[in-house]
Automatic annotation (TrEMBL):
Pfam families: PK_Tyr_Ser-Thr (PF07714), Pkinase (PF00069). ATP binds at K65. GO terms for molecular function: ATP binding; protein serine/threonine kinase activity. Signal peptide: none annotated. The keyword Nucleotide-binding applies. It comes from Triticum turgidum subsp. durum (Durum wheat). Residues 37-292 form the Protein kinase domain. SMART domains: S_TKc. Belongs to the protein kinase superfamily. It comes from the Eukaryota. This is Protein kinase domain-containing protein.
Length: 347
């Protein structure tokens, strides 16, 4: 949205949208007048938007309100449309005046990431974690695997980032931490209970990321996603976990369904309660590589059988610190994360 600070005429050069009483403006123009949304141009922000100072070619100063990534849900977009409609009819010397609006920019990432691409992302992330654990000549535990620490480049290739909490284990495969550093929802049970840190903690975190990627939901500190996944698995209804509201299964690719079920099975193997029951990351890579070989049946611990409120599997996307509670996706150069496939619903 663009406001003028004083009552003035609307920019005549901007074409009008026939369905609106105010003109629409391109994202390119807004980037130009705000110096590409420069931080130095920020004049205010709230929970859902940031306000930038902009300068028109003739030198007049305006304010540009930009919705945050976390506000780009269906509700957020509806609220935005209502705000525009309300401001269209307001004319008073003490109120800002709406000059124009822009409805373009970041696409719905969840919709653009189809099932084939999601599976490929998960395979490549698994390869990356396996390399940390066994492929570099050392055993490196990342310790904070989560969507916000996985970046996507211009070719949609995942890049694992943020090694500030990583630990190197050459011989001793077990360590203990006095302070919990893993983000809630991604920390293995043994780490939360006693600070025990092994390679299997990363395996657990990867399993959570996998289930979030396929379900479009956040796990959160209450483990609601995992509890729901186990319930559906035991009832042979695991397909209901898939984010089909946003990304329908392609009728032209019926073979993708068994692959998705197998992928969820891999995820549940990774989030089993006991570390010894979880596969090593090289084994996870092998499971992804061969889609016909038999894999173990995941076993749910009694500790995981608590009753929880059902998930709303049709919740909209977006981002937590990014943004992962959405997969928000940024390129490594812009530090955007793999947070756009899961909902921004915190627990």
């Amino acid at each position: 949205m663009i406001w003028w600070r004083r009552k003035n005429r609307i920019i005549g050069a901007i074409p009008r949208n026939p369905t609106m009483a105010v003109p629409s403006v391109s994202l390119a123009i807004i980037k130009d007048i705000t110096r590409n949304f420069s931080k130095s141009n920020i004049i205010g922000q709230g929970g859902f938007s940031i306000v930038y100072k902009g300068q028109l070619p003739e030198g007049r100063t305006i304010a540009v309100k930009r919705l945050k990534q976390t506000a780009l849900t269906t509700k957020g977009k509806n609220d935005f449309a209502r705000e525009v409609e309300v401001m269209v009819g307001l004319r008073h010397g003490s109120l800002v005046r709406l000059l124009a609006y822009c409805d373009e920019g970041t696409p719905n990432l969840r919709a653009s990431l189809d099932w084939v691409r999601r599976l490929e992302l998960l395979r490549e992330i698994a390869h990356g974690v396996a390399y940390l654990h066994a492929g570099s000549g050392e055993s490196v535990i990342h310790r904070d695997l989560k969507p916000g620490n996985i970046l996507l480049d211009d070719e949609w290739k995942p890049k694992i980032a943020d090694f500030g909490t990583a630990k190197l284990f050459a011989d001793n495969r077990t360590g203990h931490d006095q302070t919990i550093v893993i983000s809630p929802g991604y920390a293995a049970p043994e780490y939360v209970r006693g600070g025990e840190m092994t390679l299997k903690c990363d395996v657990y975190s990867f399993g959570v990321i996998l289930l979030e990627t396929l379900s479009g939901q956040r796990n959160g500190s209450l483990q609601r996603l995992l509890s729901q996944a186990w319930e559906l698995w035991e009832q042979n209804r695991i397909i209901e976990l898939l984010d089909m509201t946003i990304v329908p299964l392609p009728k032209s690719e019926p073979e993708i369904l068994p692959e998705l079920k197998r992928c969820i099975q891999i995820g549940l193997l990774c989030v089993q309660e006991m570390p010894d029951d979880r596969p090593a990351m090289p084994e996870v890579v092998a499971m992804f590589t061969s889609t016909t070989s038999q894999i173990d049946w995941p076993r749910r611990s009694v500790l995981d059988s608590r009753i929880v409120m059902p998930l709303n599997l049709s919740l909209e996307l977006d981002t937590d610190h990014l943004n992962p509670t959405a997969i928000e996706v940024r390129s490594p150069s812009s530090r955007s994360s793999y947070c756009c496939l899961a909902s921004n619903q915190s627990n």
